[in-house]
Design a protein that fits this description.
- The chain contains 8 helices and 6 strands, in the order ββααααββααββαα.
- It has about 325 residues and is mostly helical.
- It has one domain (about 25-285, about 295-310).
- The strands form 3 sheets. Strands 1-2 form a two-stranded antiparallel sheet. Strands 3-4 form a two-stranded antiparallel sheet. Strands 5-6 form a two-stranded antiparallel sheet.
- Strand 1 and strand 2 (about 20-25) form a beta hairpin.
- The relative contact order is 0.13.
- One of its GO terms (molecular function) is phosphatidylglycerol-prolipoprotein diacylglyceryl transferase activity.
- It holds the Pfam family LGT.
- This is Phosphatidylglycerol--prolipoprotein diacylglyceryl transferase.
Length: about 325
């Protein structure tokens, strides 16, 4: 499997003949992922009774804080790359500063932490239940991460151990992450491709379990954490790029297993606290007064759109999610 030409990494756009704007393909992949995640989440949350477009209001908090979290996590887990004698730590107009995200160095686990804080703030300001938003986000988040992993392919980075498999990835021997002692022409596991496939399969798993188990109150997001964390722990273990180690294990492997544990805890706690669906995606007193604020379960259920699978309620015929008896009103 060939790697893209280096010319595909950066698009240079002249501006009035006196300077150029450099657009990195990796950034375009991340932007595509953000757009897909917002679109999918918006469609799913609207089907559950939220005001159309309200996800954008939440994303205005979640996306910037997610980017900040991604960068800070990377810097803190790779201190040797930024904090050394003579290093340029703070000046963004010189190479190597911790602010220079265009030079590479962003971490998905930091994005999850920062994005979660931003989503919580956004949900508080819009009146949306945090867990309702998280469940609606879960499959879209995996789609976004799949799109983002394409950027690693364009950057010739984050590849795995050597392999003789026919889909082995071609990497130039001058690559900074090239393992010492290997012959030129050695092929490597395309871990970016493995993660793309793993994430897209995870989308199908979440949608299937939503239909079967009516996953609400954060349980769909818990499945996301368990699924992604399990796959990432394995794929991280076969990567050859430098990483901070703790007790002989790569730091991101620890983070991946922490995500799995957190997902299991959310499943167990929310299963005991809440049986059935939320009475509304809004917290009490913040419901949207629009005509579609209360959606009948028959209207929610759709076999024609797989991305909307799993959003149907458990209401009796003739009742709505807001009026169905036996629903907990606890946020």
């Amino acid at each position: 499997m060939p790697s893209p030409d280096y010319a595909w990494q950066v698009w240079e756009i002249p501006i009035f003949g006196w300077t150029t704007l450099n657009i990195h393909t990796y950034a375009l992949c991340i932007l595509l992922g953000i757009i897909l995640a917002v679109a999918i989440t918006s469609r799913r949350l609207t089907k559950r009774g939220a005001e159309p477009g309200i996800v954008v209001d939440i994303a205005l908090w979640a996306v910037p804080l997610g980017i900040i979290g991604a960068r800070l996590y990377h810097v803190l887990t790779h201190p040797g790359d930024y904090f050394y004698e003579g290093a340029n730590v703070w000046n963004p107009f010189q190479p190597g500063a911790i602010w220079n995200i265009w030079e590479g160095g962003n971490a998905i686990f930091g994005a999850l932490i920062g994005g979660a804080v931003g989503a919580w703030i956004g949900c508080r300001s819009t009146g949306i239940r945090f867990w309702s938003f998280a469940d609606a986000l879960a499959p879209g988040l995996l789609v976004a991460q799949a799109a983002g992993r394409l950027g690693n392919w364009f950057n010739h980075e984050l590849f795995g151990l050597p392999t003789d498999l026919p889909w082995g990835l071609e990497i130039e021997s001058s690559n900074p992450a090239w393992p010492q002692g290997l012959e030129p022409g050695t092929l490597f596991h395309p871990t970016f491709l493995y993660e793309i496939v793993w994430n897209l399969v995870g989308v199908a798993v979440i949608l299937f379990l939503e239909r079967r188990l009516n996953l609400r109150w954060g349980r769909a997001f818990a499945i996301y954490l368990i699924w992604y964390g399990t796959g990432r722990a394995f794929l991280e273990s076969i990567r050859v790029d430098p990483s901070e180690m703790f007790l002989g294990v790569r730091s991101n492997v620890w983070a991946a297993w922490a995500a799995v544990v957190l997902g299991i805890v959310i499943l167990l706690v929310q299963r005991r606290r809440h049986t059935g669906a939320e009475p509304s995606v809004y917290v009490p007193g913040r419901e949207w007064a629009g005509p579609d604020a209360e959606v009948d379960s028959d209207d929610i259920e759709s076999d024609s759109d797989s991305l909307d699978d799993g959003v149907e309620g458990e209401n009796e015929p003739g009742t709505t999610a807001a009026t169905s008896p036996g629903r907990s009103a606890t946020a």
